[in-house]
Batch of 2 targets.
Target 1
Amino acid sequence: MNEQDGTPLDTFDTQFFSEPALVLWDPLLTRQLRVLLHADRLLSLQSRDDHRPPEFQHYASLSLALKLFDLIITHTGLGQDIEHSQAIEELLPLLEAMDRGAGIEPERARAVHMAERVLATLYNEEERRGPFKLDYTTFEQGEAVKRTLSVRLLEERHHVDGRTVLRLSNECANLLLNALTVNLEDAQVAAEAIIEWQLKRGRIQEARGSSQWALQHSMRLREHIERRLLDTRRDLHSVDWREEMRHTLDDALLHVRTRCTVEHSIVATARELREQLEPGSRQAYQLAEIIELIETCRQQHLILERRLLEAPRIFFEEQERQIFTLRPPLLFPHPQNDLLAPLLSLPRAHVVQTLDTIVSACFPASAPGMFSLARYLHYLLQPRREAQVDSVPIQPRELIDTDYDQTRFTAEMVERAEHYLAALEQPKRLSEVVLAAQDAGESVAVLEVLVFLVMDYFDEQDSPEPEKLPVYVLKTDTQQFWLSTVAGDDVVLYPKQNRKEHQHAS
Amino acid sequence: MLPDTQTLIDAGRLIQWALRPHARPATEEEYQHLIDRYRDQVPFRECVQAICRGLGVAVTAAGQRGVVLTPDDDSVFAMTAEYYHRSGSAEDRLIDGFILVAILATFYPRAQDLEEDPLLVRPPVTVEEVERTLRMLCEHLEEAARTQPDPTVQEVTAGLDEAWRAYQNRVATKTTSDGRASASTTLQMIRRAFGTLQQHGCVSIVSRNGNEAYQPTWKYQVMTQEESVARLASIVRTLIATREA
């Protein structure tokens, strides 16, 4: 900082450096940089291998990932989409080969575990299948700008037939198919031109591979358009209909109409060439495959054309439904903190009153059940279900008599106190007995035991054997006594031999 | 102008297909044809929606993977707590309700998860993970309640004690005299909840690393993101407002 006026010193001559920065950084470089970053997550698989446990270090994760991608690309959209478990099985031969190459006995469990780990890494299970976040620096108007790129590699998607299938993200598929800086439509034009050239020069085998590539591009384009239309149905504001969709639809419609003409030409050329080949020959068979592939491309384009033609109608309908209708803003609550925790903390009776609504909110509409005699009979005739022993068995307890409590008064103390009561020959007040024991030098504990025994003997009905009590305790008046350690009602203690006389008297 | 009879019949057929938990347009030609007609023809769509309104259901989504119908609270097509667990006590039904919400919260642990495309499959969850979700919450609430006095006998009788105590007092697992897992334990109740959801086409069973787990279907994900969360949030807001009043 300038100490006089606080203005920052110019460490660099920005005027000298700004113009070259604007000229040197082409926006195309930003696109290439983003493409390279998509490869970063793939290449990082290889560095992870060194940090695995020793028994897994001989496996090459990157090779397994590429094989997986190849499987997915090969099967996508052709009625044989691959599932998670199927992908694991397809990788096992590679893993077994790696085991043999490292001189290790192949083991299925270890191989399956490694395949699961590779898939988990590609899913980004560490972030619960969220996208990978990658930072990069680009230059805009002479200034360095740091941006974050979100990348997905592998996804599971719901298939129309109810299965869950693996799909590559658009970015990953384009990367693998060498689409570094090429526009999707241009790549397809190039592929189809290649097919036509190869057919004219008899390069049939290469034409077959290029045809497959062209079909993949066609399907990607159709999915892209359909997804934008679906996004429009869900939320009109998420799609830019002013510029992006208008140009996309115009370009796509022109492309589709042009491609149909080109593909018709390719098929015509291929059929003409097939006429010249020997029927049943290997070349004729391959040419037939190419024709079928191109026909499939044309079908895809026809489906896409239909979607493109209905796109404006969808836009107007959704505009009327979404824009011209007042709707509250959609803010999602946190399911655990804003729904479950408050429900648990509310009074039980209040929650019970809303149980029907809670349960109905968690299920779709379902037809109410009706009693069916046939189903009831089937249920009754079902075999008894096996016991599911999935809990810890409770061992029967062995009860034993124990006494771990330390008594306050020892047996000797109790015996000493009982001696004073057993030695009574004449009726005496309790205070006299306690004083006699105190004068004899008995401890405070013995005096306390003496008093407790008298309290215990007070009600004969509490004793299981009242005839065995050494004394008979009776409260004759309200006289009380206070000594240094004990105090209370000064009851009269009658010796055992006097009990019967007293009972007769009372 | 009233729609013709065939249109009404087709609308009824589409609703009937939508009520079947495991029907797929890809395998049922009529279903696929009716969905295409629903998406492409506005009069037919309006007819279907009107009939659904009358039946107390709403069309939440309609696409290549089927039609998702969600019921109103008083609809005959709505699942009730009593129908869900016929032989259970009031406390059992209360715990069943918590379990269903906990399953949703375990599938969607963060608010931003609800913004994702429902075509993206959510990771599978196990019975033990749902149990852990509920136990942890109950332990936190119990910890917070330690500074408060215990509920009175009158409060417990009137049902005014906190609802989490009902779940906390229920054991996770135990065996009966014949060696079976007791149906009144929380793990078994969670397992039954998943079984019922599977019957209604909401989850599918998968195997991950040798363990049995449950993965939500497209139908469940659409229903949750479009309807369930909003309705549950509305219930919670109403209950909180009632308590504060």
Target 2
Amino acid sequence: MSGPDTQTPVGASVFLSLSGLDDLIRSLKQSGYEVVGPTLRQGAICYDRIHAVQDLPRGWTDRQEPGHYRLERREDDACFGYVVGPQSWKQFLFPPMSTVSLAELSTDGWRVTANDGANEPRFAFLGVRACELAAIAIQDRVFQQAAYTDPIYAARRERALLIAVNCTQAAPTCFCESMHTGPRCSSGFDLALTELDDGFIVEVGSQRGATLIATVATVGVTDEQLQWAEERRSGARKQQRQMPRETARDTVLGNLQHPRWSEVAERCLSCTNCTQVCPTCFCSSVHEVTDLDMTRVERERVWDSCFNLEFSYMNGGAVRNSIRSRYRQWLTHKLGSWHEQFGTSGCVGCGRCITWCPVGIDLTEEVVALAGGST
Amino acid sequence: MDAAALAQALSQTSFALTLPAATITRLAALAQPKSLASGATLFREGDSHDGFYIVRSGHVVLEMGIATRGRARILTVGPGELLAWSTLVGDSRMTATAIAQDDVELLALSGRELAAACEADHELGFQIMRRIAQGLSKRLLATRLQMLDLFHADASAATGGWS
Amino acid sequence: MTTPNAECRSTSGCHVSTVTPANPWAAHSAEIVAIEPDYAGVATYCLRLTDPARAAYTCQPGQFNMLYLPGVGESAISVSGYDAASDAWLHTVRTAGQVTGALERLGPGGKLALRGPFGVGWPLMEILSTSASDAPRDLIFAVGGIGLAPLRMAIEWSIRERAKLGRLTLLYGARTPSTRLYPAQLDDWRQQGIDVLTTVDRFEPGWTGQIGVVPDLIERLKLRPDRTTVLTCGPEVMMRYTARGLIARGVDPSDIWLSMERNMQCAVGFCGHCQLGPTFICKDGPVFRYDRLAPYLDIEDL
């Protein structure tokens, strides 16, 4: 049992029972957090507001293949016994739709008030996977730069509390291990859970996490429990797919005229699914939303995609007219030029783009083909 | 202009820039200086013409006649560039009218003599023809750029931003 | 018409004064104080900022603003001058899309908003710092069409810094004689010692200048390639062949700078639209050193 006076230090672990998790969720809500976690929705595990453990997808798991996703019952009642669904935390930190500014017309002219982020919500994310922690770290670099910071992202990110969950299984589409982004949650979280049969090993990752876990009843962990947790986590290291992490950048950037781009373009529908499910894709467009007398105009930023023809439009036409050039833009950006822009790959190996591609295009396979290997 | 001065003048043109000295001397022997006053006509479209020219200084404007439009000016030829190449690679009939835009200094070679020299010495012929091909290739690129009409509203900058 | 002193570009770009990250969506209020027609479809809009934050606004040659017409949208327009008498920043705009069409309809006195300045401008300080008194740098402005607008402030700067620079040459290609931008200024610049060579794609009666394209002019130029810096702006195809022509004449690719255009929406590298290879045209450019961009310019649809 620990209390405010004897907080679990950062880096240490405690045991939290299932009912303790319920208490934790309640405690977060009482502290003013909107708690978001996995829920069952429309045949998938989606992130949504949760109020208690019973909202979690207990006893469900996901089966994923290229172009395939189905839920199945588990043999146990695990709360986090799935891998990743179509959504990521991106939709909360970088919302699909957000108002960036308000323009009001008076006799003096237009007065524009930019969203400074002050009214953005305070989230607690429950169930953040290692690849998702990596994705958040990547978007941190995208939206928080020296000269400009995106006020909406920055405010939500600063306030967000991250409760990670270590994966105990991998989908056939996972390749985080080869991207060095998982499966173990190693940093960037406030708390990290590993699910056991009767509760959770909770690792404290930050002072904020230490303060939070002190608000609920926990007990010390036994060596046996730590060993069980390690065994559970090892289940996530059995990954079928790999990305050649060291060479992918040169492979995609060094083969801009490779015939493979035309081949993949014959399969690619340019549907934008991969960019919507990708936890790091950040492209957006801004639209005007006016009131009826055109004196009050909001600017609304919405997710966009480099797969849309209009995305590269300049007067006179689009720069990237073919699916070949748009797929090439996506993959060379994600695996190649992202490094130069942000000092990291844009891929975390979550496999969502493989699962949710209607025709099952597999980027790991594309990279191997571009490198000249057989597929 | 004596032979040495002609060779010197020739060697200063971009046409002759990388030619061996001996070749320049041979070409200079076929060349004569020619001056045009501003407004003077060098040749007319449809003329059978024996001259072949390298512009040393000044500008020559090329025009083509169109029945309903009169003479259309299509191109300005400037220093280092070739004029009347139809003499060598065509049937000697000029495809445009050439008029001096300002005071022009040319090196004039007889097309017949130059063609004969190229026939007699294929190495010389190759050097000459390669340079003519390079000149034509530049002219073709310029013509394409003109044809693309890059500055027409819809082909250029959307916003008037930076192009 | 004058421009403010152009103190441009430390090595890290033009945002050196920014200490805390700025909100990219903040906008100035602005009004149109005058519209100067340039030629059919193109006009120069003189915009005065009217909000309390206007005093902080300054901008460097080659940077751009996002002109914002609430309810219509934004358009990226380079700044082409400053008129001290009316305290107005000049934006030469071709009426082409919705935003520029709406701007045209606003007319003098019209109200709008403006975000900016954005991007990295021309490397003017670098040029000065490499211009030695015994070998001053020659500057060539190689310009096509409305591309003269983003270079106007740089040309005026070069006149002010005349004593520290070598030969100044403006190669200007336009569609026709009557669609040359700023024709009166071209004459002024000639008077002030810039060698102004103009060429047009299409002849019009009365034109005594050249007919042809900017790469033709480069062929004929007397160059000192080892001490020449080139600033080019125009359609991408024109800039590409201009650069190739200059390099063939011995100019180092790292001494050629070009200003690029792409679809821009956020102007700070967040929205992803304007990428070319690893660059965001909006924040890494729009002005780039040619050798850094060359690998990406020749690949179709990149």
